[in-house]
Write a structure and sequence with these properties.
The structure holds 3 protein chains of 3 kinds.
Chain A lengths: L2 E8 L5 E4 L5 E2 L8 E2 L1 H11 L8 E12 L2 E4 L2 H8 L13
Antiparallel strand pairs in A: 1-2, 1-4, 1-5, 2-3, 5-6
Chain B lengths: L5 H22 L5 H10 L2 E3 L4 E6 L4 E3 H14 L3 E4 L4 E4 L7 H10 L16 E2 L14 H11 L14 E4 L13 E7 L5 E7 L11 E8 L3 H15 L10 H8 L1 H15 L8 H10 L13 H9 L1 H10 E3 L5 E6 L10 E3 H14 L3 E4 L5 E7 L3 H10 L14 E2 L14 H10 L3 H7 L4 E4 L13 E8 L2 E8 L11 E2 L4 E2 H18 L6 H8 L2 H8 L3
Parallel strand pairs in B: 6-7, 7-8, 16-17, 17-18
Antiparallel strand pairs in B: 1-2, 2-5, 3-14, 4-5, 4-13, 8-9, 9-10, 11-12, 12-15, 14-15, 18-19, 19-20, 19-21
Helix pairs in contact in B: 1-2, 1-4, 3-4, 3-12, 5-9, 6-8, 7-8, 10-11, 14-16, 16-18
Chain C lengths: L1 E4 L2 E3 L4 E2 L13 E4 H6 L1 H6 L4 E5 L17 E6 L6 H12 L5 E6 L3 H10 L3 E4 L3 H12 L16 H15 L1
Parallel strand pairs in C: 3-4, 4-5, 5-6, 6-7, 7-8
Antiparallel strand pairs in C: 1-2, 1-8
Helix pairs in contact in C: 4-5
Classes of the chains: A alpha+beta, B alpha+beta, C alpha/beta.
The complex binds protoporphyrin IX containing FE and iron/sulfur cluster.
The site of iron/sulfur cluster (SF4) has 13 residues of chain B, from loops.
Organism (chain A): Thalassospira xianhensis MCCC 1A02616
InterPro entries (chain A): DUF2849 (IPR021270)
Protein name (chain A): Sulfite reductase
Amino acid sequence: MSLQVVTANRLDDGLVVFLTADGGWSENIDQSRIADGKEAGDALLAEASVPELDTVIVGPYLIEVEQQDGGLIPTKYREVLRTKGPSVRQDLGYQAE
Amino acid sequence: MYRYDDFDRQLVLERTEQFREQVKRRLSGDITEDQFRPLRLMNGVYLQLHAYMLRVAVPYGTLRADQLRQLGYIARRYDKGYGHFTTRQNIQYNWPKLAEIPDALLDLAKVEMHAIQTSGNCIRNTTTDQYAGAAADEIEDPRPYCELIRQWSTFHPEFTYLPRKFKIAVTGSPNDRAAVKVHDIGLRMHQNDAGEVGFEVIVGGGLGRTPFVGKTVRDFIGKNDLFSYLEAILRVYNRFGRRDNKYKARIKILVHEIGVEEMQRLVEEEWAQIKDGSLRVDDAEIVHYIEQFAPPAFETLSDDDAEFERRKAENREFSNWVRSNVIAHKQPGYAIANVSLKPIGGIPGDATDTQMELVADLSEQYSFGDVRVTHEQNLVLPHVKKADLFSLWAELKNANLATANLGYVTDIISCPGLDYCALATARSIPLSQRISERFSDLDRQHDIGELKIKISGCINACGHHHVGHIGILGLDKRGKEFYQITLGGDASENAEIGKIAGAGFSEAEVVDAIESLVTKYLGIRETGERFIDTYRRVGMDPFKEVLYGDR
Amino acid sequence: MAIVKNDSVIDQEWVTLDAEADLPSGEENIIVPLARFKEERETLIGRNGGLGVQLNPGDVPEDLANDLDRLSIITVNFPAYTDGRGYSYARILRERLGFKGELRAIGDVLRDQILYMHRCGFDAYELKNDDDVSLTKVRAALKEMTVYYQPTGDGRATAASLRERRRAALKSAS
Ligand code: HEM
Ligand code: SF4
């Protein structure tokens, strides 16, 4: 079944964040709340799309992920880049930390 | 060079304050993202893959030393120590924080710069020949007209919500280095039969999803009438351009759908009504702007410099650099020096804060404090004494800025692609790096000669792949990056849209594919032919064969 | 909803009819879409009561050229603020055809476009906010910028004209 998490960019600094289990936003995809299946995914996205969050994040959307070595990896390469940083600058983005 | 007066300064400061307020309203929740997005875009603020991106205009590609130094400072203070020079003669920063962008814009305003109209469906930053005012082949310096266009188009109240973005490019030379035929409006300066200098007006060029070479709507428009004529074109476009489909909204589609004759008729009809109005610019005002771009205080020199010749003879590395990166100047004893932002294996167009500061310093020392940004993502010191070229080169070399590859196969245009861009379908930078490494041998590059490779990470064509001699378009095929090759494109005065060679290549295959094209060219070229010349002579088939064999 | 004109909030004195709505029998002030105006021109100008026309994107403002002195108001509809055709219509009405009546922007009229609208010849703005907020917004929008590069029919002095005046003054002083 397809696992999904919600990602967005944080309003003030624009950095990539993920919706966490406690309803907050984390820079670490592994702390994401996971939705299993379409219905759960839609519900998760609905939760992230409420107007109150308009001052916290921008452009929430669902991405598909897989569990690997105890962590979460997006299935699409584009999203992998977002969780890490530019492939051509390994010294920048989350991958640098 | 043009200096802001109090009006220009006031306008930019007011705009900066206005945006500061808008950001404040956004952060406090007064306005929603939907309301804010167009406002931030009008100020050059995008939201990209990893963070916000700030796009700063370099009007007509001309920078003063203090401006470039400030761009370096901004890279350090608000970003991560670098910036990316683009095909639009702009610079992009990839990591600014929204809350800090108003401060960055204020710092820009201090050196008479801004991010106004670097995005949005308005008239964008006007681009021109990077060698303006220096090139030996120039009819006239186009920048006075570019500056007048900048003013006319800045916050134009009627044309801020056009069907789509609008790009104007101007060339003052018969050798078009500004790709004017692939802009919404291209202006080419030339002399009419009466000996007056004016503009050929080309409309409806563009790249993106449906590339077109522009068509001439008027052979000659005099300088005094240029602005009313531009206004007439924009009004026709604003009224009749399609708004039902964003992919069909550029003026190129309007021209294509109604035909160039009808376009001409509409424009001339509109122009007839406004040509004697207040947009007519009189000679005195034009002279005033020409004076602002008066040549610097050149020394009277002989065109031959013995020291320069001696250095060239002695130092092969230097003479290689001169051969590729130094171009004839109109003033005897001077030369145009290109600063390559394409080190072998580097990221095309990226410059660090310290590199920007260094080039700023060097421009003061060697080039009257004048720097240019090229649409091919390099920098230029336009007015260097031949006698100074060697010391300039030595200093550039220390900063990894003296790659001798201008116009060669490793001088690749590349958009940011999937490494940064939210719209991308594939990466483009890593590909340019691998091609660059494959062809790193300088003798081989010289042997191959002029060859323009241009790479875009999606169909929007920011990397100009349609007009690359070899163009590469990155696509997504079931989750895998793959690359489509086009051949025969040309951005010059002989503009041509490249043709797709055939099926795309995987990331692993594509560099070999490019190399096989080059090898083929070397095998069949006639004396003096560039890749593009050979392609024009023999056509697609021989190249297709090396790519696909019997496939 | 509030209409701001001449630095104050004004009453809505106009009824906008669509293509089908019955014409009121009395002396109400009515606004009809351009298409209807063209179809029923004789009836409409024969009525008592004020008459106005609404322009929608795609309309041809020149169609009103011969009737402008019969119209007290023209409303220009911006279904979305991103559809900028109405700016051209306004300038054509004011600067080319010499319309002197009220030119009102309706539809998706937001603070950040009001200055541009004013520069193109609009003198009234229908906003979705209540009276006070609307008035505050229009006032703030109209004074946010003070330097203008383009000559339009709004009468504001352009940077070029001010520079020229200054150059002339300097010349006569020297
Ligand atoms: C990074 C964010 C960017 C975004 C979101 C973006 C978006 C777009 C889009 C949507 C188009 C197609 C427009 C159309 O056909 O109507 C386009 C075209 C273009 N962009 Fe970009 N672009 C970006 C970066 C760049 C960069 C870095 C450059 C220069 C290296 C650039 C230069 C151009 C050029 C030259 C074109 C094609 C010419 C044209 O038809 O206008 N853009 N861009
Ligand atoms: S061509 Fe596509 S991938 Fe490249 S910068 Fe433009 S929009 Fe982004």
